[in-house]
Amino acid sequence: MDVVEACKAFVAVSGHGSFTVGAAAARIPQSVASRRVAALERHFGARLLTRNSRSVTLTPFGREMLPSARRLVDLAEAMEHDAERAKLRPFRLAVPEVCAPRPLARLVSDARRHDLDLDPRPAGPAERAEQARTLDVRAALVAVPPDEGVWRVPLGLAGRADPGAAAVIHVETLRAGRAERDSRRRRVLIQPEDDVPHVRDRVTRLRDAVGLQPAQVVVAPSLVAATADVLGSADLLLCSPGQADDLGLHWRPVGELDLARGYDVTAGLREDARRIRDLPPAAIGCCLGVAEREA
Fold it and tell me: Do 3 and 75 touch, CB atoms closer than 8 A?
């Protein structure tokens, strides 16, 4: 028995004093209203209504139960209203700040075809994880080690100068020679998106292994600040190929390391994570820099 539907019939019939009028008000056939009230009476083991040929009246037990039935009906109607509003509410998704507008817009468009109204919220890696934990967003694309992620974005070094035919850039070449010790040493700038242990710590260990100074590998306050330094010097930016292309820089892989960003989906509810994973993986990957964006 559906207790909510049975209570709706009971409230309508008792309020109108008639099965015929009450059923019409509840938009159900009279026979259905009668069956639902009878089922509710069997469930409680007592009569709710006294029936005669012209009308129905509440029994003493029915008078006691009517307020509870009304509260249940009101709560069910409020819940249905809230459910409809929830369907229309945008789905807040924390995304990396490095996501470019065009592929992000294409992802939103693709999501709408899956009945999902995405509301992307750009944030840094630590902030995205915290927003998902505190339910400030329904889901987040979080940074994870590349071998644990759904999406993998290669990282390398990019600079203003064209390295020519060089297939890779070796970090050890940034070590200052005797003639350069009094001049400003070239640096590797790490942008905030890569200020995570599985990227930052590996680059830092490489710095120490090849004999660079601590100040030659630094985390920049922003991608804009890092790019400005690279455009005005011989410094190198740790970034993805797509970012380098957008910034007009020349990109090569790191000779000593295979570096990459990894991304996965996290959410407070398993259903919310599933809804994001059900979107075209290539559309999400394009936002993250996995695939080459359209010109």
Answer: no
Contact status, residue 151 vs residue 99, Cβ threshold 8 Å: no
Q: Each residue's pLDDT tens digit in the chain (295 positions)?
A: 899 999 999 999 999 999 999 999 999 999 999 999 999 999 999 999 998 877 899 999 999 999 999 999 999 999 988 877 766 679 999 999 999 999 999 999 999 998 899 999 999 999 999 999 999 999 999 999 999 999 999 999 999 999 888 899 999 999 876 445 556 789 999 999 999 999 999 999 999 999 999 999 999 999 999 999 999 999 999 999 999 999 999 999 999 999 999 999 999 999 999 999 999 999 999 999 996 543 3
Residue type present at position 203: V
CB within 8 A of 160, min separation 6: which ones? 230, 231, 233, 234, 249, 250
Instruction: Summarize the chain as % helix, strand, coil (round to 5).
Output: 50, 20, 30
Q: Enumerate the H helices of the chain as residue ranges.
A: 3-16, 19-25, 30-44, 60-88, 101-112, 125-133, 197-209, 223-231, 241-247, 270-277, 281-288
d(CA 87, CA 79): 12
CA-based max dimension of the chain: 111
CA angle, residues 46, 68, 49, in degrees to nearest 5: 35
Q: In terms of Cα–Cα distance, which of 145, 127, 142, 266 is closest to 199?
A: 145
Report the alpha-carbon distance of residue 53 to residue 129 in Å, rounded.
66
What distance in Å separates the CA atoms of residue 204 and residue 218, rounded to the nearest whole number?
9
* Domains, the chain, ordered by start: 3-88 (1.10.10.10), 91-148+261-288 (3.40.190.10), 154-260 (3.40.190.290)
Q: Which pTM was predicted? A: 0.70
In DSSP notation, 47-58 reads --EEE-SS-EEE
* SS3 (DSSP) at 238: strand
